[in-house]
Design a protein that fits this description.
Blueprint (H helix, E strand, L loop, with lengths): L1 E11 L5 E11 L3 E5 L6 H8 L7 E6 L2 E2 L5 H10 E4 L3 H4 L6 H12 L13 H11 L16 H13 L5 E5 L7 H17 L3 E6 L2 H7 L2 E6 L2 E7 L10 H9 L1
Parallel strand pairs: 3-8, 3-9, 6-7, 7-8
Antiparallel strand pairs: 1-2, 1-4, 4-5, 9-10
InterPro entries: AAA+_ATPase, ABC_transp_ATP-bind, ABC_transporter-like_ATP-bd, ABC_transporter-like_CS, P-loop_NTPase
Keywords: ATP-binding, Nucleotide-binding, Transport
GO molecular function, one term: ATP binding
């Protein structure tokens, strides 16, 4: 069953640049759908449109049967509880003045009135934070530290913990490992795979790294100049049917 469906989504900036051109796809419950392409192809713009940070010009974005572009501000608040995003740079996503425990509790505080948690419990703030740290395989003593006291990989795990804290249905992963070293990249990708299965999550995994996308995703879309030019499942990456641009990306990795 489709959780997210895009129907000919188009986005043009005021400068006249056509960033996204009639993009259509569906993302199923429990699936990791990859979106790969070089920098500037429109991937991150598409992510912002899905998050409703950017408004689309044409088309429709349907989540759980509702057209996102038609939602009122009240309904949009409910929608944002169901879909979270993890960005490329964890340092910019965390308030440097807040301790880790305060950053972790913030999403819960925003949505506590309408949350019905299944995988985490909230009997106390301290217990909740410990559950989140354990879920992303971090020690409890990090709760009282500040972001600058953590490594890049640890900071990204904290942003993942924030994203899962309100148990969304979909997480948009926008280049989540691009700023990490090779070992940290592998560890974070393995963690994300485990979390998807244990927490019943769905992912839209956006990256320029075809190898990482292929490792994570059951299906992959290839984007070029604002358009989806190819799509395939995890077993057909090296098929002769691949688009010439996909073959170019394969040759790079």
């Amino acid at each position: 069953m489709s959780l997210l469906e895009l129907k000919e989504v188009t986005k043009t900036y005021k400068s006249g640049k056509l960033a996204v051109n009639k993009v259509s796809f569906n993302l199923n419950n429990g699936e990791c759908l990859g979106l790969v392409g070089e920098s500037g192809c429109g991937k991150s713009t598409l992510a912002r449109c899905i998050m409703r940070v950017e408004n689309i010009d044409k088309g429709s974005i349907v989540f759980n049967g509702e057209a996102m572009e038609k939602l009122s501000e009240r309904r949009l608040h409910h929608y944002r509880k169901k879909i979270q995003i993890v960005f490329q740079n964890p340092s910019s996503a965390l308030n440097p003045k807040l301790k880790i425990k305060d950053s972790l509790i913030d999403p819960y505080d925003q949505y506590r009135q309408s949350l019905n948690l299944r995988h985490f419990s909230f009997h106390s703030k301290e217990q909740f934070i410990l559950q989140l740290l354990d879920a992303v395989e971090l020690p409890s003593e990090l709760a009282d530290r500040y972001p600058h006291e953590l490594s890049g990989g640890q900071r990204q795990r904290i942003t993942i913990a924030r994203a899962i804290s309100i148990e969304p249905e979909l997480i948009v992963l926008d280049e989540p490992t691009a700023s990490l070293d090779v070992l940290s990249q592998k560890a974070v990708l393995n963690l994300l795979t485990d979390l998807r299965k244990t927490l019943d999550l769905s992912y839209l995994f956006i990256s320029h790294d075809l190898a990482a996308v292929n490792q994570m995703s059951q299906r992959t879309l290839v984007m070029k100049s604002g358009e989806v030019v190819d799509q395939f499942n995890e077993y057909n990456l090296f098929s002769n049917d691949r688009h010439i641009y996909t073959k170019k990306l394969i040759s790079i990795f």
